[in-house]
């Protein structure tokens, strides 16, 4: 009987379909969809939104309607101008590393409003993921370390994709637009998180563990900290030092649209660095109004980052035990300003 049971199990194993792997062709299809969405949005807004057109740097002669299919890649010229910039900036997407055409500003929040976008939060608290085989082993281990940190510091569970789950992250070294970038919240289906591997210029998205953590937190539904409505009370924007076409990346969100009630966090892993979109890569574009304060750290989640993610996903309300557990983890493991250092260039 044991032999028959073993044979039956073996036959089931052989007959069962192996989980489908993600291929470069799959990623290319997703990237074409992304590029097409940018072309469509560009064509729609080219006459009535010059700031949006300049930010994409794909405009043609004024007043001429160019069929979307004939527009050059909206990422080509951006890649040339931002090649030496921080890898969270170099992709040239909205605010540097946010993919997809932006929602209207009135809907922007610290995190996506679950009342307005109920499907954009990973409501089961489980996030399947695939790491590209194109990464070297040490890069794959680096990404897995970032995922382990999020798994430990929050109640969200990142699990390897089983080939069947409909919604999952595809962590991939995208070549165009190259850089560290992500979508905001769950899109549905396969969803790219781009982490550019090291090259001769720099370590790119692998300069510090906070780089992949930052992009994955975007995928969980969070925006940049410095986009908060109250940021002018905490940082000063030096507009003359910003590449003109990217001034719109420093816009603020509406005051009524802050989802989570936490103080402004200079130390947030979601905060811009001081020289993001700098006109000469050296001049600061943003400075904190508080002395001895570092912005742009990528050592990991700050104390408040940890609380925000846990609050947004209900980790603090599951039970008194879990509230104590994750509150303690945030306090003990979250990066504080006196421990922060800037991990970019």
UniProtKB/TrEMBL annotation:
Its EC number is 3.4.24.-. The active site is at 215. Residues 110-316 form the Peptidase M12A domain. Pfam families: Astacin. Coiled coil: none annotated. Keywords: Hydrolase, Metal-binding, Metalloprotease, Protease, Signal, Zinc. This is Metalloendopeptidase. The gene is nas-15_0.
